[in-house]
Each structure stands twice: as structure tokens, then as C-alpha cells.
Amino acid sequence: MTIVVKEGTASLRWRISVSGIVQGVGFRPFVYRLALERGLSGFVANTSEGVAIEAQGQAAQLEDFLVALREEAPPLARIGEIVSCSIPLVEESEFVFNHSDASGPVATLISPDVAVCAECLAEFFAPDDRRFRYPFINCTNCGPRYTIIRGIPYDRPNTTMADFAMCQACRREYDDPGNRRFHAQPNCCPECGPHLTFAEADGGRLGNGEAAVAEASQRLAAGEIVAVKGIGGFHLAVDAANARAVERLRQRKGREAKPLAVMVADLAAARRICRLEDMEVQALTSRERPIVLADKKEGHGLAEAVAPGSDQFGLMLPYAPLHYLLLEGKAGAMVMTSGNRSEEPICIENDEALLRLQGIADCFLMHDRPIHLPCDDSVVSFQAGMVRQLRRSRGFAPGPLTLAESGSMVLGVGAELKNTVCLLKEKQAFCSQHIGDLKNLEAYRVFRQSLGQLAALFEITPALVAHDLHPQYLSSRWAAEQQGLPTLAVQHHHAHLAACLAENRQAGPAIGIILDGAGYGPDQTIWGGEVLLGDARGYRRFAALESLPLPGGDAAVQAPWRTALSYLQAAFGADLPELPFMAAHECGMILAMVGKGVNSPLTSSCGRLFDAERRQADHSV
Ligand SMILES: [Zn+2]
Ligand SMILES: [Zn+2]
Question: 327 C-alpha to center of ligand 1: Å?
């Protein structure tokens, strides 16, 4: 692809390198257009650092080009640095768009998945558009990315769209530098792209396309549980105002009390059920579209079982075009919780969902665009004047955190519960999506797949693998199995301190107050309520909650009365009073265990202290 430039006008040639998120976001097409508008010759290409440009023309045009590169960059691009230098003129008359070349160097940053953009949405609702109500509409500025990429370079053959050959109309858009779908890898239409199907729980197909959506909507209205395939996996959807439906979902999913996320059609609907601060509105409508925890409003009209005992709902707005179809014309809200059994990762394949969600979902709304990696919804909360991430997943992963300092390539494999992994490359930390509890076989599979994906996408062979100090964590064992790579064991709470410093670009030393569930300490007790003094390199355990016996170890997490008893024993000794909650339990046996130190590891855990407090409070009257 070339443009012809008038000969004899060039006076300068610049080499410009751009780093950051510049692949899969329409950056090269954007550069190409800028060059075209300014009559420059040269080329644009991907490199292992980002994008390389050589541009030749008159000084004023070149300067203007450089300013526009930064100021008009496509919305999904995140420019790190632009470095330019003058080089000798070359005899040429064209500006060349270099296509990705699988054998050549490739760009390093992959965009997260992004909610459908306003322009695509306008087409989606325009009856005369060829993608009217087509739920897989996307462009260079929106749509799935991380969850459909199988390998690099980020080009169609390396995505889960490889099997969908573009029709002529789509191909024309894809090839046209002036089109907003120029090189949009998931580009497709009803003629050539994926489609919806509706299936009963036994797999029997009932309808396709619009009929599938209509059937799913009817079933939702009738109180059924519908499994809906989205961007990062399946959701389980029910009408959030239908108490019986929500209760059924809870029972079937084995989820007793944790709040369920709720999706509403728009901001007006969100305001009817929650009080929203400006920052919460911003987060709700952002292109990452996380779940936002927001205060419930009186008379919200949703079933109590959606978020029992909590004064907040986890709210989100539609982000896949399909969600808009499901919520169309509905004033109400839909529970949209991860499509999994408790503690398992979210389902992504149709056959897998039919199997794993058997007995939970009444019916299935699916599509045939494969999801390569599961990616749960992200969760944010407005606390102390800022929106803070509680779960960094879809919309954010694998977008990097920029660090203050550059270092060697390190792979962090995380702990065992709520696992995520992280790859350090130069000044950037690429964090995976939320993976979950590695003791779950399916989660452990996703853990290994995600490690492979990050290493492949960023072309990194780490110089060091950092893992938790606990030798029995599955992530620690995985690290130990890596042949030829040096490993480093990091104390769990030191990792928390270092991560907090890195995220805030502070070098320390700092006082870190870490209030946690459990982490293995170098003294072989379980730590968890720690005041550490240190930085990334090291720490001193300045103070900690008192270490007390945890009768039965992990079993006490499920039976917090045991912890309460142990803590009371420590406080009162021989004067331990009879308290109402004790009548219901075999306290003598537990006190004997504690007394003899049998199967009662010592812990300074803050989580266990909270368990004990809560147990007492429940029975204080
Ligand atoms: Zn779009
Ligand atoms: Zn098409």
C-alpha cells in the first residue's frame, strides 16, 4: 500500500520510534493517514519496541506530523515515548504501510478488550446499516482483543476470527486506510462473521440470530437462568427483581451470600437503584466497563438475595453489543454473574459450558466466536476519594502498569488463592487477568495457559521466576519445575508491600501495614497482620498481630468459632467464661488441641482475627 509524493520537495528525513500500546489499536493506519495528509514519504512498521516510522518531507510538515502523532493518536493507543532523530534523505516517492510480518520483529503491547464504541453503537441501532442489530460489530477502536489473540503478530490469522473469511464488503473496509475499520482484526458482518444460537440445557438448538435473542429475553422474563456467552466467558443471567429466580441461581451455583453483579441498560437505570458519585459514573461508562460497587438506593426494587446484608450493589453497564439487545426496552436490571460453579474459572467454550453449567443454567445463549482465554469482569470501588481496583481483569488485562525504574525480565507467578501472574519487561509490568484459586484443576490449567500467553505475546524468556515463599503452593511448585531458570522465593506480605510501592512508583523505604488472610512466614508460622518496614529489596518485621494457635489450621476458616475460642483462651486463660456460642460446639476438644499444640499452627492473620470477632459479635446477646 503506497501513496505518491511530489518529487523534489523533501528537505528532511526523520526516524521516529513510538513505544506503548500501539498494536491492535489502529496505530499504523493512523500514522499512514497523517503521512498522507501531509504529503510525506517513508514508511511505518512494527518493531519489538513498538512502531518505527521514517518520514521525509519539509520541516514544517514533519513538525506538524510529530505533534499530531501524540495529540491525535487513536483512543485505544497508549503512547509511552516518541523519540525522533534526523537521518540522511532517501530517494523515494511513496509512503509505505508495512504489514505485520510473522518472521520479522513485532510490537510488544496488546490492547485489553474494549466495550463497543459510540460510533459502532450508532450503526448497530441504525435500521439501514448493514450491521443493524449485529452483535459482533466492532472497529479499530473497540471490540475484543486480549481474549481472542492466540499468538503474535496481532493479525487475523492469529486470532479466534481466523476461521471467518471476510466478505468483499468487510475486506474493502479492512483494506481502506480511510475507513475506521482499516486493519480491525475482528472485523465482520452478518454475511461473514459469527452468529448467535439459543440452546436448551440438553444442547437442543432452538433458534439463531434475532430469534435466539428473543427466546433468551422471554426466558429471562419468565424467571429462568440463562447462560450468556460474552467477551471473556459466560455469564449466568436472571431477572434481578425476581426473588425466586435469584434464590434459585444462588442455590444452584453454590453461592450463599456473596453479592451478585447486576447489569442495567443505561445510566438512568443505574441511578434508579444506586446513589452514584461522579467518579463512579465515570468508571461505569469507561471503555473498560468494570463492575462498580455503589451504594444502594431506597426502593431499588431488586431482590434482597442479589446482595444480602450489603448496602451496595455491584453494578455494570452493557459492554458487548449482545448485552444491549438483551436489555433493550427494559427498565429493570439483570443479574450477570460469572458462568461457573463456585471457585471454578468462568466457562468459555460452548460445549464446556453445556457440560459445566449443567444443573445451573436452564438454557444457553451462545455464539461461535471462540474465546481464547477466560477473562472475568473487573471490579472497582470508590474509596477515600479515588476509584480503586479490587479485581483487575477484563478491560485492563494485560495492559501494563508503568514502573519508576527499568529492570531485568522477571516473571511473578503469584500466590495460590485469587492468583494473577505478572511479567516485568523494562519499565512495564504486564499483569494477567484474575485467574482464581489454583487448587481448582480448571484454574490451574488457565494459570499455565496465561503464563504461556503472556510469554508469547511479549516475547519474553524471563531471567528470573519469583514465587511465593510457601513451598506447597501450586504456583511455587510450577516455578520449581522450570528447568534452567533461576527462582526467587518472596515472603507473601513483603510481596504486598513491594507491589504497593511499585504501583505507586515509590522506591521506599516505607512502612507497610498489611492486613491479610494468610501468608507463609520465614519462621514457618502463618503471617497475616503485619507491619513491615522496607522496600522491594528487603524488609524488617517491625510489628505484627500476636501469633495465636489456629485449631485445625485451614479448617478454622470454615468454622470461625474455633478461632474465636482459641483467641478467647489466649485472652482469659484459666478464667475463660462460658459464652452463649460455646453451647453449640465441642469446645473441650478444641481447647485441648490448642493447649497441646496439636494441629494448631500459629498465625498472626488479620482475617482470622476478624473471623473471631464476628463469631463473638453474632452471639454477643
Ligand atoms: Zn467501534
Ligand atoms: Zn462481512
Answer: 19
Rounded CA gap, 576 and 588, in Å? 12
Centre of ligand 2 to C-alpha 190, Å, is 6
Ligand nearest to the CA of 143: 1
Report how far ligand 1's centroid is from the alpha carbon of 319 (Å).
Answer: 11
Cα 132 to middle of ligand 1, angstroms: 14
pLDDT digits (tens, 9 = 90+) for 220-258: 999 999 999 999 999 999 999 999 999 999 999 887 788
Neighbours of ion ligand 1 (CB under 5 A): 117, 120, 139, 141-142
Residues of the chain with pLDDT under 70: 1-10, 48-49, 99-109, 615-621
Ligand number nearest to the C-alpha of 173: 2
pTM for this prediction: 0.82
Do 160 and 150 form a contact (C-beta atoms < 8 A)? yes
Nearest ligand, measured from the Cα of 131: 2
Average pLDDT, whole number, for the chain?
Answer: 89
- Write down the pLDDT at residue 577: 84
CA proximity to 187, closest of 225, 148, 153: 148
Question: Residues 6 or more apart from 532 whose CB is under 8 A from it?
Answer: 493, 494, 497, 511, 512, 514, 539, 540, 541, 542
Distance CA 410, CA 619 (A): 48
Residue for grid cell 512466614 = 521
Per-residue 3-state assignment (H helix, E strand, C coil) for 206-246: EEEHHHHHHHHHHHHHCCCCEEEECCCCEEEEEECCCHHHH
Residue pLDDT, tens place only, 431-466:
999 998 999 888 999 999 999 888 877 777 889 999
Beta bridge pairs of residue 55: 14, 42
